[in-house]
Amino acid sequence: MATETGSQPGVSRRTFLATAGSVLASTAALGLVRPADASTAWRMRGDAFEACSCNVTCPCNFASDPTLGFCEVIVAWRIQEGNYGDTRLDGLNLVQYIRMPGNLWQGNWTAGVYLDQRATQEQVQALGTILSGQAGGWFASLSGLIGQQLAPQQVPIQFETVNGEHRVTVPGLLEVGTERIPNPVPGQPPLDIKVSDIAVAGLYTGTVHVRRSSILKMTDPNLRFAYSGRSSLIGQFEYTGP
């Protein structure tokens, strides 16, 4: 059964995962974003998943209004292989958390980002340039939807996969995991529904698997929410630029 605890009153409205462009507009405030160089080639590929406050499966991914009238979501990436110019990004994890006040495409998101504590300053600078949209590519197309960018944080991010299900933990701030949806037909195995061509084109590469959240709990002072049994998707990604 789905359970939920919504955002605290007064918290700015949310935005997505994928729009990691939001992610690091605010790194500029920390002096971490290098001057944009539109000619620098970059590439990232790996695993991605999202979990949100909507019923399975999230209507936002099909250009419809969110289940509750707003959408609170996290998107997590595990970079298997990546580079920004000569700067390697292999093995790093990223999380974006968002609150969208209405339809995804109406914008005015509130968004924050967690960067892997293991990243060097050079890697953080590279990720900031990519995620802010300055380096072109997929993130540039969504960065304009963010109304409020929260300051990024560099924290420990544990991204685990067990039996095909993902779980991400940021100590003291975030815990989120996926699970298969129980089959409504007695005696049948859990569902493994697959979808493609979602509205947020480019977030995933190829087919994605429909899941539900086993837990979704954000306890960040800037944005708090808790749900379980709600919409989740898992898949792979490959982004390039400029």
Helix content: under 10%
For the residues shown, what is the average pLDDT?
85
Radius of gyration: 17 Å
SS-derived structural category: mainly beta
Write the H/E string, N to C. Answer: EHEEEEEHEEEEEEEEE
Uncertain ranges: 7-34
**Terminal-residue CA separation:** 44 Å
Structurally, the number of domains stands at: 1
Count of helical stretches:
2
| Binned strand content | 35-45%
What about the largest sheet?
Answer: 15 strands, mixed
General shape: globular
Number of E strands: 15
Write out key terms for the chains shown.
242 residues; mainly beta; 2 helices; globular
Blueprint of the fold:
Blueprint lengths: L2 E3 L14 H4 L18 E11 L18 E14 L2 E2 L4 E8 L8 E8 L4 H11 L14 E4 L3 E3 L2 E5 L2 E6 L3 E6 L14 E2 L12 E13 L2 E6 L2 E11 L1
Parallel strand pairs: 6-7, 6-8
Antiparallel strand pairs: 1-14, 2-3, 2-15, 3-4, 3-5, 5-6, 9-10, 10-11, 11-13, 12-13, 13-14, 13-15
General description of the model:
This protein is mainly beta and 242 residues long. It has one domain. It has helices at 20-23, 121-131; strands at 3-5, 42-52, 71-84, 87-88, 93-100, 109-116, 146-149, 153-155, 158-162, 165-170, 174-179, 194-195, 208-220, 223-228, 231-241. The chain has a 15-stranded mixed β-sheet that branches. Mean pLDDT is 85; it is low at 7-34.
